Structure formats: C-alpha cells, structure tokens
Fold this protein.
Amino acid sequence: MQKYWKMAAAVATSAMLSVGATAALAQDYTITVWSGGSGPNDNYRIDAIKIAADFLEREAAVLGEELNITVEGKPYTQWDEFKQAVTLAAEAGTAPNIVVAGHEDIAAWAQSGLIVPIEDYVDVDSWPINDIYENLFDISSFNGVLYGLPQDAESRPFFFWKGHMRGIGYSDADIDALPGRIQSGEYTLQDVLVDAKKIQDAGLVKPGYGFYPRVSNGPDYWQFYLSFGGQMEDGSGKLVFDKAAMTKFYQFFVDAVAVGVTRKNHIGTPWDQWYGEVASGKAGMWHGGTWHYKRYTTKEGLDDFFGSIQFSLIPAGDADGAANTITHPLVYLLTKQDDDDAIAIAADLVKIASEPRINALHAIKSAHLGITKSEASVDLYSGDRWAREATERLLPYASAMPNNVNFGQYWEIMWGGLEGSWTGQKSVADAIADVETELRTTLGDKIIIR
Amino acid sequence: MGNSSVDVADVGGAKTRVPPTSGPKLSKLASIGNSKYLGLYLLAPAFLFVFVFFLVPVVLTGVFGFTNMSTATGISGGSYLVNQSSMLALKDRHGLDEIADDLAEVVYTIDEDGLAAAAQGKADAATLAEFRDKFLGQSFDNRRDVERAIKSLNSRPSSTRVIKAIAANFERSVLNIRFDTEEELFAAVSDFGVSLDAEQKVALSDVAYTGWVFTTDNFKRMVSLPETTKTLINTMFYVFTTLILFNTGFALVLAISTHYMESAPAGFFRSVWLLPRITPPVLYVLMWKWLAWDTGFLSVILEPFGVEPRNWMLDSPANAWTFIILINGMVGASMGMLIFSSAIKAIPQSLFYASEVDGATRIQQIRHIILPQLRFPILFITSYQTLSLMTSFEYILLATEGGPGGATEVWALTTYLKALSNYAGALEYGYGAALALVLVVIGVALSIFYLKLFDFKTLTAPPKIE
Amino acid sequence: MSGNYRQWPMILFLGILTVPLILMYVYLFVDTVTNSPPGSMIPNEFTTEHWRFLWETIPGRPSIWVATWNTFVFATSTTLIVLMISSAAGYSLSRLNMPARSFFLGSIMVLHAFPTVTLLIAIFLILQMVGLYNTLIGVILVKASLELPFGIWIMKGFYDTVPWEIEMAGIQDGATRFQVWTKLVLPQVKPAIMALGIFSFLAGWSEFILPLVLAPDNKVQVLSVYLAALIADDNNFDMALFKSVGVFYVLPVIVLFVFFQNKLMNIYSGGTKG
C-alpha cells in the first residue's frame, strides 16, 4: 500500500515542484511537431501550434514568468513513411513532442505506451475542450480516456457531376432533391449503378468513368460496408465481421465492373490523374472527402464548384443499411517523453491550437470541417458556403472507424479481399471465405464473425 | 630457390623462411607482419562489421520471429495495464468475469491517507484543509469528478497540473494505470481489495502485459493462411521464370551474339545492357512507368491504332508479371552477360578458326564449342541468381507494390510490407520476422547446396607459401 | 572474332531487342529539357523549367543540394570502408593460412543469401542501441557491412590470380608478410580495387531501402529517397520533373560508367574459376 501511494506522491511532488520552479527561471522549450498526409494546404496543422506557442508565451508573461518556446514542424506528405518514422523514432527515444495522426492510431500507440493521454495534462472542462463535438471527443478517446484533441474533422461524401445528371434527364429540382432522397434511403447504390450506366451509354463519359471511386485504400471503403448494414465494432470493444454485409459490399464493386461503369484495374490509377479527371467532368459519379473542395477549386482550377457538382451522403446499399458517411479526424497526440514539463507545454499548445478561431484557419484553408460548436459561428467559417453546407448535410450522420488495437489488421484484410474480388482474381465468395479464414487466424477471439 | 609445395610445412602456423642474416631485431609491426596472426588481424575488421551488422541481426530476426512484436506491443518491452481491452480478454480467455468487472471499477476515495500524501507533495495547506472539510469520506467513480470537486474550492490551486497531481493521490483503483512490474500490479490490486489466487494472478498477468511475448502463433498463422501458398507460388514462378528467361537465358544470348560482332557494336550493346543494373532502382522503375502507364509511351503510340490507353503494367496480373519479369530480368541479365562473355573470350581462337575451316555454321559452333565451355559459368550464374532473385523485392515494391490485388506479391515483398507498412500504422514486426526466417532458411539451404555442388574445396586450397 | 560470318544479322537481332531500352533512356534525357503537348510523344518546345528544383526548394523537402551531399558522403564512405576491409580480408583468406579459413569463406557465401529485408528491424534495434538511428553514419556502417561479403569474395578472387612468385621473392628479400601485401601484392590487384571501388560507389549511390527505413529525416535524406518521395507525392505529379531529378541523380553514375566501363566489366573475371 505504502509503495503504491509513494508512487502517486512522487508524481504529485514532481508536478508541484516543477510548477513552482517555473516561476523562478526562464524556461526554454523546443517542441517538435510532425504531421502525416499533409499537403500544401495543410500547413496550419503545424502553424496552429506556432500560433499557440506565441499565446502561451504571452500568458506566461502576464503571470510574470518567462517562457520561450520554439516550434519545429515537419510535414510528411505520405502516411506510410510517416507512421514508420514515428514508430521507429519513438523506439529510439527521438519521437517528436506532438504528432498529427489519424485517430485510428490511438489504440495501438496507447497500448504500447508511445503516446500519453492529454487528459493527464489538461482540464477537460476548460475551453475549448468543453466545446468540442461529442462524437469527436469520443473519437479522440480510448478506453474512456481522452488521448488527444481532434485536429480537424471531415466527412466523405458522394459526388455527382451535375452536367451529366442533367444529360440523363434529371432536372435541376431533381438534382437538388437528390441528397434528401439518398438520406431517406430512397436512392440506393443500385440506383447509382443504373444512372452511371445511363451516363456512360449517353456518351457523356468514357467507359469506365461512370462510377469513379477512390484509387487507393482509405477509410472511405468502410462506408460501403456500412451502407449494406455492416458494423465495424460492437459496443463493448470487439470488432465485428458481418459476412452478409461484406459480401454485398464486395459484390457491389464487382457489379460495377461487370456493368462496365468502373474499370477492373481502377485501383492504382495515379492520384493526380484522378483528381484532374473528376474535377473536370470526365467522371459521372465518384466519392471523396470534404477537403476535395479545396483541391478542385484551387489546384484543378474548377471555377463553379456548386454549379457543377452535387454532393450527398454515401447512399444505402439496400434496405438493411442506411446512407452514411465516415469521418476520419486527425488528432493531435502527445508522445511519451522523458521531460514531463515538455509534455505539459505540448498539451497546452495543443489545447490552444484547438480554439475555434485558430482551428478555423486550418478548416477553411484546407477545406476540412470544424471541431468545436462555436467554430461554426466564426466569421471565416460561417462565411464559407462549403463549410456550412457540408457540416449540415454530412456531419450529423457521420460515424467513425473504431479505436481498436486490432482494427489495423482487420482493415488490411478487408482491403485485400476487396482488391482481390474487384480485380477479378477471386470470386466474391472465395474472397469472403479467405477473409474469414484470415480473420480467424490473425485475430481469433478479438473479432466476432457473424 | 624454389619453394616447391613439398617444402611447405603442413602446420597451421605461418612458417615463413626468416632470412638467414639476422639483421636488426624485428619491430612489433614486423613481427605482426610475420606472425601467424596477421591473417586474423587483417580479417578482424571484416569480422567485426559482419558480426555486428549481419550476424547479430540475423539472430535477432530469428528470435523475433517467435514473438508477437508489433506497434501495439512496442519493441523494448511493456508494462502491465488493466484497461477495457485487457478486462475483455480476461473474460473471454480465462472466464474470470467477476474479477474483470471488479478490476474495471474506478474508485477515488477522499481519506486521510490520501490527504497526507497530498500534503507531502507540498499542496497548499489551505487547499487541503478546505478539501478535507468539504469532501472527506466521499467516493468518486471517475477522476474528472474529483478534479471538479477540487476546482469547486475557494482556495483552489491555479494550475491544472497541481489539481491533477492532488487528485492522483486519491486513486484507489487500478484501471488505466501502467505498472512497470508484475509485483507492483499485484500489490495495487490487493490494495484495491480484490484478492486473487495464484492461478488468477497468472491470468491477470497474461492479459495485462502490453509488451511482446514469445509465441509460435506466427508460424501457425503462416501455415493456415491461403495467401501464404499463393505468395510461395508467386515467388517460385517469379524466380524461375526470370532466371531462365533473362538472368541465364538472355544473358547467354547477349554474350554469344556480341561475341559474333566487331568490338564496336559489341561494346555498344554490352554497355547498353549494363545500364539497367547501374541505374538507381527508383529512376529505373520510373522509366518503366513512363513506358507503361496510362499516359505513357505505349498508350500514346498505340492510340492511333485504336488501342485504348490503359495502364499496361497494372491492367491484369499477366500484364503485371510481364513487366515485373522484364524489369528484373534486364537488370539480372547483365551479370550473366559479363561472366559468359569473359568465359567465351577465354576460348582459344584457334578452335573457332578450325571449325570454320571445317565448314561449321554458327549454330554448330555455339553448340559444340561455346556451350560446353560455359557449363560451369552457367551453373554458377544459375545458383547465384536464384538467391539474388529470391531475396529481391525492391523493384517490385517500386513498380507494382505487389499489385494488382496481390498478384505480383513475392515472399520478400510480403515480409517488408507486413513488418514496415500498414495503412493504420499497425506494423507487425514479429510476423514479418517469421516470414523473413523462412526466407533465410531456404536461402541458407540453397547456398549450402550450391557450395557442395561447386566443390567448395577447390576454392579454398591451402595457400602455397606455407 | 566473327570470322567469315556476316555480322549484320546479329546486330539486327540484338538491336530490335534493345530498342525499348534505348527508347527509355533517350526519352529520359529528352523529357528533361522539353515539353510535349498532352497525348503526343513529340516534343514541341525547349524548356529549363523542369530543372527548377536546382534553385527552388520544393516545400516539405530538403534542398536538393543537401540530399546530393548526403548521397555523396554515403556512397564515398561506404566505398572506402568496403575497399579497406575487403582488401585486407580478401588477402587474408586468399593467401594466409589461418585457422577456420574455410569456415569464413563458406559463411561469406552463405551470407549472400540473406536479404536485407529480413534484417531491417533487427538492424534498426542495434543502431538505436548505439544511438545511430536516423544518422548517416549509421546507414553507412550498415551498408558497408552488407556489401562486405561481395567485396571480400571479389578481392579474394583477384588475389588468387596473383602469382605466388611475387610474394615468394618478397619474402626472400626479407620483407614481412605485411610488407609483401602492401608493397607487392596490392599494386597487382589495382584493377580489382578500382572495379570494386566503382561498383561499391554505384551501389551506395543507388541504395534505397536502407536510407528509407533507417535515415528518413530530411537532414540525412539521400537522393533515392528524395526522388521516391517526390514520385509518391500526389500533389505534384509531374513526370518531367521526376525525370529531371532522376537525370540529376544518375549523372555521376553515367559519368563513372562512361569512363570506367571496361574496369566495371572486368569485375567478375577474377572471381569464378571453373
């Protein structure tokens, strides 16, 4: 008993002593921030921390303390090398103080002790944490503890090229009504195939461009599993593999290939080419993310986004499922460091960076969505049509991938099965059987197979 | 003075003939230079490097193959953690539902012991006094409420960290606390009031440990996955097709045809065919992508003929394999070309002239003069390149990454991807090491086989000076 | 050598097979200084815009000159280490009678069978223990070690071709074995040293996987990783830019190749006795 309390006391002592010490000397900190999957529009992931550092220094000055914080940022454009670098650096003891990663990394990294909960350093009742959307708050938690703060929110909509929809007989009113019909479940994925075929047959797009999905693995594909009624995790922390839903999900893409609206070897098309094509009307329907708005209107030079493109939830697959969208927030995470004070400073920086005004800078520049409720009333945000409409139409219906240590493996296996059936290497039945075997062998009792 | 081999003393030590005139005493260096340990000194640096960066990693890899090391377990060990997932595992794997539920409770009790500990931490006396007044004896079931209680005091501390530090003193439960050792975990659990017998302790330790453990699960998994067989077949197909078509086959073609040319065109062709080997892989594969992708050379050239532009590399498994074999083959052919060429050069000209006089055609020359001389080089290249091909994956990684849909995934590539690449950051080092181990075993077996095949002894004849 | 045979059928035959290769390399250079309209392979204008990476730093990446310097240091250091250690070890295995000789030789052959990929995580751990992860020195040591078996094998093969008489003469004249090695034998294997040196430099210059995993940081990035990251970045797909960076990357290789190809081609002639 004594031993245990001594430990707690030691923690408490060091915390209080160090806090006391801060008042006496000038404190210098270098805080490193790494972000993954960041393009040129995502600079605020790191710059927000710099802004926060300036603020924290000023607050310290007001309290009569001297604080000098240098922020060093490093954006990675890819995810693969980023995650490799973070994991290996952590093992080597050179991990950056703050990491901007996908929320799905929280589980594995928390388990191995690579990250520490931000809740150990900040008050969750304080602003702006108390203003964060509840579902985002949950997504940034693991095992009931808040590990990080959401850095941005987004959703993954379904897109239609208005010109082509008109070309197959939709009136403007019909097009406006589409999102509503999708949400109610009236317009399903089967209708997508039918309309895509019509667009192709009418010669409006080339063969294989009727339905033009994402060209590489991503959270988006789980949406189609949800569309057919699948569930990723049950409430108690176990993963779920719904064979019927997964079968219909794979079958949908196989059907798309069979009907001819999607190419068999669509996966692997270069991203640059894909963006260029969807933004210029070469595809009939496709799906993507809310940040695509920025990409289309800046880099791809699309002038009239709202006049050319209609967006909605991902349609339901059939009566078993529902229209849905997945949100894949990135989160600010704190890595385990030897210097507890540095972690505390990093925590404060992250907290300040999440304030509505600062977060709105990132949201609008990179076309992501806000993380706090009051962010919606920041002028920069509310003045942006895309931010308003997307938040309204998509966020309330968004679910997220679970924070689960084994989800990464489940995801890889799901993707393997999808790729195999889509490219025609296996029949859907074989692919599902293989997926089941692999899940049983790899995850055992950590997944429920229905 | 002829030192014939008969004179050589057949002793392990270097018995050189020290010059008869005694001269000055040999310096230390000179004595090293003459000692039987010179060989060891010369070999030592090599041995050191190879040991540290080659042998030790091999052993480590072998060890890791029997663990479940991954991003979640971390590499340098773990701690003991009672949390939602470990309690779930306690229920599923060991059936200790009640204990799991007990342990999963969170309890903060405001009692004298906690207050005393907080006082030791130099919390403000006024704060603690007020806290005692208002909250002594109360229990909370989560930390946030304790913190809110502290915040509700008049003399609340101004720093969040101090508040949290005070709250920590009252935690009585074990949920979500990382313990460095088993003993600490058990001590805390018994302090919490949950008693465990020895068997239950073992179970708890098993589910709570976050680090890696030894296990043979990797191999069980490997054996029961359908894709293992597929990868194995892919690897064998890849190795033998590339070997036969290019590394040996085309290399022969190159060597023989350049033999029949003037040195100028011969030199030109040899140089061009050496280019793939010396071009950095990243650039080399980029050039192939330029050739084969949707917007690339092939598509553009063939479009006027009505052929749809397509991704020639990834269109279908057959396409992908064709390109993979071409890419790797062109690199591999150069080594064989060089060795065969020098072997052909060693054939005396007179043989050729004589056969020409006899009216032999080129084909006959090739069959009867060249090929017999090349038997040993062909065998050597075949064995050496089998190993090289089996362990190569860089070009495949850069070109198709195993696609489309895993069609071109070979064993070495799977090893890399499993250990170092996962979309959700769930890297599986242990499983990757197990895959690597299989590759190593096959590689070692093959190389020993080849060594035997080539009469290893002739390559290691004892030196003649001794 | 061709005697009375016509050589043009051979040239034609090989020529046709070589066309794709020639095409790729020719276009490699052409595309770096020209632009073509989309959908066509015929360039219609000269431009130096693809070379702008030389004076502009692409955001998020190190300057190309930093990467070039890193690559140069990496390649040269591994070459030096490999040369020094291989020439010593090769001599020892070829000439000196020391215990367990055949064991060392055999193990070198066997070591060739080990794929780098199998050792990556373990090597990472070792580097991390000595604090050399994410440093150039660390990758240099690793790469040198992995090149050693090949280097030793080649050097030994060349040493085997040096006539015994040279050494025996040296011993009779009163030299130590060490002096015999440095003053008499080493000059004999100069071609081997050159060839191995060039080979190792090229290998170091092209190395991709090791720096990718063990030294990914911008400060220690090498050109291969730089180029690969550029290609993978889907914000900046520009085949011409990739090729220009590629040509910049491959220049030293081409230079070495043009001047030393004969030496390169001789590298295998000392090694395989039938």
Observations:
- Confidence is low (pLDDT under 50) at residues 1-26, 457-466 of chain B.
- Chain B touches chain A through 77 residues (CB under 8 Å).
- The longest strand of chain B covers residues 80-81.
- DSSP finds 23 helices and four strands in chain B.
